[in-house]
Amino acid sequence: MRRQFIKVCPVPSEQQPINEYEELKTSWFFCLATSEKYLFLRNIIIIWSIGWLLSSPLAAASFPPDQSLLLFVVSSDLGAGVLLILILLQLTSGWYHIKGRLKKKTIFYEESGWYDGQTWIKPSEMVIRDRLIMSYQVNPIVNRLINTISLLSLVMFVHTMIWLYFSTA
Q1: CA torsion 85→79→157→86, rounded to 10°?
Q2: H/E element holding 160?
Q3: InterPro entries, per this entry (predicted)?
Q4: With a threshold of 0.85, does the pTM exceed it?
């Protein structure tokens, strides 16, 4: 009979990387990044549309649609893009944090407050488990977010160049 040694983890449950990952995965905001490709794209379009509705009155005040429709549309797109980039950056920041906690061989935790933190070395089984989760669950999410931000940044750059060209002409 094989004997298993149970190592007592002194890290509070809510500060263990695996539990932080599970909590992040199920939170209403951060689960936006974990959804299927179609749902992720739909959510991005919804957020962009809300941003467009919020930024279009400001763009209309600067560039009346009946006088300069192209500048109005480009300005509204840029405003919507700013909102979307801020949301994507917040999502990326949260997932990067979890990725870092899963990747490390040690866990820094607070026992009762910020002034008495401790570091605990993970057992090798926990390191392997956490790195597998990081590689197969978290990395694809982070890569998706980075690719989305990159594409959105490119689109916003093109819109900025169009805006600069037509606003000075």
Answers
A1: -10
A2: helix 139-168
A3: CGLD27-like
A4: yes
